[in-house]
Amino acid sequence: MSDTNDILDDSLDDHKKEISNIPLDDKKIINGWAMFDWANSSYALVITAAIFPAYFSSVAPEEIPFLGATIKNSTMFSYSISFGYLLIAAALPLLTGIADYAGRKMYFMKRFTLIGSLACLSLFLFTGPSTLWIGIGGYILALIGFAGGQVFYNSYLPVIASEKNLDSVSAKGFSYGYIGSVILLVINLAMITFHAELGLGLQMATRLAFLSVGFWWLGFAQISFARLPKDIPHPVTQGIIKKGYREIQKVYGQLKYLPNTKRFLVAYFFYISGVMTVMMLATMFAKAELNMETNKLIVTVLIIQLVAIAGAYLFAKISSWKGNRFSLLAMLFIWIGICLAAYMTTEENEFFILAGVVGLVMGGIQSLSRSTYSKLIPENTPDTASFFSFFDVLEKTGIVLGTFIFGFIGESFGLRYSVLFLIIYFVIGIGILLTVEVKTPKEIQH
After folding, report:
1. 15 HSE (CA, 13 A, CB side)
2. What is the C-alpha separation between 92 and 90, in angstroms, rounded?
3. Which domains does the chain carry?
4. Contact 102, 256 (CB under 8 A)
5. Are the beta carbons of 285 and 338 closer than 8 angstroms?
6. Distance from C-alpha of 397 to C-alpha of 411, rounded to nearest angstrom
7. pLDDT, position 307
8. How far apart are CA 307 and CA 178, in angstroms?
9. What is the distance between the alpha carbons of residues 110 and 383, in angstroms, rounded to a whole number?
10. In Å, what is the CA distance from 405 to each residue of 98, 234, 399, 418?
């Protein structure tokens, strides 16, 4: 047993040496890190939010056989999201434990990127009811690729940025993602809008958008892979899975002595369930409740993304003035207002205004949550991937909970009641977040 502990201690010392050799706040490394958001956010915007939900709704049958019954296609779409995130939530703790133990963050980041981008390419083959399994399977695999790569990407943040710059660097990542994905969405919107002039059918123009995401994601990710610190693999003995679990157990053991960090994670679980459900199913809601056309839905998503760029920097600035907790609480109250307004929305113009408000707090809530958690991780920890696996698994589990209940309530009572139910998540998140202590800007400076 002592030999095993000595090996783990030596591995810990090696990890710390590697981290200390990585320059903090290096502009080239940070820009390279942010480019991964530029690359994979094309999936989050084009596939998840803008084009694929409406395409799925129009191409898939209205009623889909499922477990001996039939359900609405909107419910099947919601359940697909739940299933995909359930799979990745189950796998990530083990994979991040292995990554930390074996020094393989970049390895897993590359593999998930490949899975996600190839899955997006496969969606080109989804043309109707006969290829429904390709549409659902490709969507789930793309989701897994995105979510899996994201946790390793996030784990680089406390390694490459100093504590005082965590908020601004995190905001830069999200802003790069919003800008890059908007550029690709505008190209796709033009292709879909002017499909006849380009000699394309509407469906073909839409399917080409899925191809563009796959190539964009895989291509621009290479910049991040070239600039981020390279893996320094450690010798791997037999029993790597057991050692991966041991790494997670070690981090969980540390969390027992970090009650403040644990409270933040619980708060994050609840409020991010509401945030991510709104983001993923907003266009499905608009299509079903307001009967909005696909082009208008894409414009709505563009509004959200463009405002989100400003929102990420705005709340990072507010955080530098009033602190992270103040900024997060302010945004959560705004999210409650968004749910109430969505329940009462009946006109397209009202939905456009609401989309602008969503954009304002969407970028801020994600960016500040990530940087706040980075501040609550023990300084110079070598296990950033394992620590962030708890953060990301809670997000994924929250999405499973949020989208499943959203789909269940929508199937039983209607989507407007689903939106109203999301308020509960934000209220619980606010209550717990009030008990979390985060360093003030003055304390960080000193």
Report:
1. 21
2. 6
3. 24-230+239-445 (1.20.1250.20)
4. no
5. no
6. 21
7. 85
8. 9
9. 19
10. 33, 43, 10, 8
What does the pLDDT read at residue 3? 41
Per-residue pLDDT, 37: 93
CB atoms within 10 A of CB 385: 29
Tokens of 9: 């201690």
Cα dihedral 364, 366, 372, 375 in deg (nearest 10):
-120
Structural tokens at position 290: 């307001």
Q: List, in order, residues 6 or more apart from 108 with CB less than 8 Å away.
A: 95, 96, 99, 148, 149, 152
CB contact set of 133 (below 8 Å; sequence gap of 6+):
none
Res 8: pLDDT: 39
Which segments in the chain show pLDDT lower than 70?
1-21, 97, 99-102, 233-248, 280, 283-284, 287-288, 380-386, 440-446
Tokens of 345: 């929305």
Three-class SS string for the chain? CHHHHHHHHHHHHHHHHHHHCCCCCCHHHHHHHHHHHHHHHHHHHHHHHHCHHHHHHHHCCCEEEECCEEEEHHHHHHHHHHHHHHHHHHHHHHHHHHHHHHCCHHHHHHHHHHHHHHHHHHHHHCCCHHHHHHHHHHHHHHHHHHHHHHHHHHHCHHHHCCHHHHHHHHHHHHHHHHHHHHHHHHHHHHHHHCCCCCCCCHHHHHHHHHHHHHHHHHHHHHHHHHHCCCCCCCCCCCCHHHHHHHHHHHHHHHHHCCHHHHHHHHHHHHHHHHHHHHHHHHHHHHHHHHCCCHHHHHHHHHHHHHHHHHHHHHHHHHHHHHCHHHHHHHHHHHHHHHHHHHHHCCCHHHHHHHHHHHHHHHHHHHHHHHHHHHHHCCCCCCCHHHHHHHHHHHHHHHHHHHHHHHHHHHHHCCHHHHHHHCHHHHHHHHHHHCCCCCCCHHHHHC
pLDDT of residue 247: 62
